[in-house]
Amino acid sequence: MQASRSIKQTLPQMMRLSALLLLVLILPVNIWFQFYTNHESQYKESQLLFAQLERLISENQERLFTEEQRYTERAIQAAEVVAFIVDNHPSIIKSQTQLQILAQKYGLDEIHIFSPQGKIFAGTHTKYYGFTFESGEQIGFFAPMLKDRSLKLCQGVTPNTAEGIPMQYSAVWAQDGSVIVQVGLKPERLLKVRERRALDNLIFTVPLGAQGSLMIFDRDSQKVVASTIKRVVGTDLTKVYAEYGEPEWGESFHYDYEGQNYCAYMHDYGKYRFISFYSSHFLTKKVLLSTLLVLFYIGTVALVIMGLVSWYVKRKLADNLAKIAK
Questions:
Q1: In whole angstroms, how large is the CA radius of gyration of the chain?
Q2: Are 167 and 185 spatial neighbours (Cβ–Cβ below 8 Å)?
Q3: pLDDT in tens, 14-71
């Protein structure tokens, strides 16, 4: 009977001790493993995101360049057409109305006629009469044409000098060398293409995982040029560093910002720096929940096993030992 009582007490105690030892050994390892695997997952996801961003930006730049080249060719062709008409009908220069009809016919917003000395004396807009190639940086782009009559120049999209309206100007010499013909186009379609392909729109086409965010900043200006968090676009990072300290840059690092800690991953591409970041609070919460589930599973299994062992000891083993002892 004494042996039976001893077995009834010893086996459950051993089971409880084993379960406790199992928890002490498994839980810390589980927590470390959870953090490790989640960081590895974030790192791999970030590398894929960065590769996608590189590809998208590269393709985007190529398409924009192609679109800009088309506009440049169209603008120069438009200037050549007007110059050809002026060559064959010089009297049209004297009529602003005729020049306006010509501009409307060919879808032009402005036509300006310069003297060989580089001064506007005719065109569709009288308010520009008297402007010269020395009247501003924008119009001064065409000044080299005074020295080289073979030049056909097209300027990139810039705000015009007088009103600040985005325009694309191109200019050619008339064949007889009597005037320089300049035409202006509002590149609305090109501006829409640029807007659609801007980085702050492009970044949203990259698929992000749960609680992940992306940011691109220009390393030259130290400003955020695109982010999946709209409110940080345009942020001057030098001011952020002054308040929160500059991070220790690396492929992965942690950074405290506005009272929150983030796991961050970095990649440099040309003048841009890509950063993906994940809230450490979210990761800690996720690991804690996973740990509690593991604790629940182990505890449940341990209770079931201890219950079965207790039942077996009481009903089978203890009775058999009692019979043997008797």
A1: 38
A2: yes
A3: 666 766 766 667 777 767 777 777 778 788 888 888 888 888 888 888 888 887 888 8
pTM for the complete prediction?
Answer: 0.62
Query: 254-289, pLDDT tens digit by residue?
Result: 778 777 788 888 889 888 889 888 877 666 677 677
Q: Which residue in 155, 149, 88, 143 sits closest to 119, CA to CA? A: 143
Helix then strand count (H, E) for the chain reads 8, 11
Residue 313 exposed, middle or buried by CB count within 10 Å (0-12, 13-18, 19+): buried
Contacts of 10 (CB under 8 A, 6+ apart): none
Per-residue CA distances from 118 to 81, 87, 215, 301 (Å): 20, 18, 47, 92
Which are the contacts of 57, defined by CB distance < 8 A and separation ≥ 6?
199, 202, 269, 272
Q: Which amino acid is residue 227, in one-letter code?
A: S
In sequence order, the 6+-apart residues with CB closer than 8 A to the CB of 54 are 269
DSSP code, position 20: H
Count of Cβ atoms closer than 10 Å to residue 278 Cβ:
23
The Cα-based distances of 193 to 64, 65, 72, 184, 186 in angstroms read 8, 11, 15, 19, 13
Contact between 254 and 262 under an 8 Å Cβ cutoff? The reply is yes
Q: What is the DSSP letter of 85?
A: H
In degrees rounded to 5, what are phi and psi of residue 163? -120, -10
